[in-house]
Amino acid sequence: MATLNWRTINIDLLDPESPANFSIATLSPAAPPVSASEVQSLSSQIKQLLRGGDSEGALRGALESPPYGGDAAAKEVHLATVVEILQSIKQSEMSPMLSRIYDSEGGVEILDVLMKYLYKGMSHSSKPSSASTGSMSPQPTGFSQIHSRGGGEGGGQAMSVLLSWHEKLVEIAGPGSIVRVMSDRRTV
After folding, report:
1. 137 phi and psi angles, rounded to 5 deg
2. DSSP letter at 30?
3. What is the pLDDT of residues 18-38, one digit of tens each?
């Protein structure tokens, strides 16, 4: 008689309510598909508000309709729009604007979307550009050194703006916003 090692039995497969027995795709809500042209037209409308001096309206408009169902190009266009809006707002206007948004109806969700864009923007500005990856030189130690020539300051300034917004956002919305963003399966 063969001995069966009971420690190697996967009991999750025997439990009907186990996460191994259902599709993980059901955990994320369905997002309507959004085309890049729709995001581009929304972006132009938002930039028109920004040029008109309504920076809060532009920020609210960008954050109320994130392209969850869009492709990568649509999400990049919307990210660039949000970062442009954030860079155009003065630091003295950040806290009062965030407080007004937070106190309005649906304000917590809007600020959570802003937090998603802050993290997305931080992750994009920390990646080396394609121009800098082409000029990697091998070192005698076996490691590579990335040379970034010219234009390296733009990413630093964008990162500084995003970090300032992050600080103000955590002051207003609290650390719960970070937890909600990290646990949300919808990406911007």
Report:
1. -115, 130
2. P
3. 777 777 777 777 888 999 999
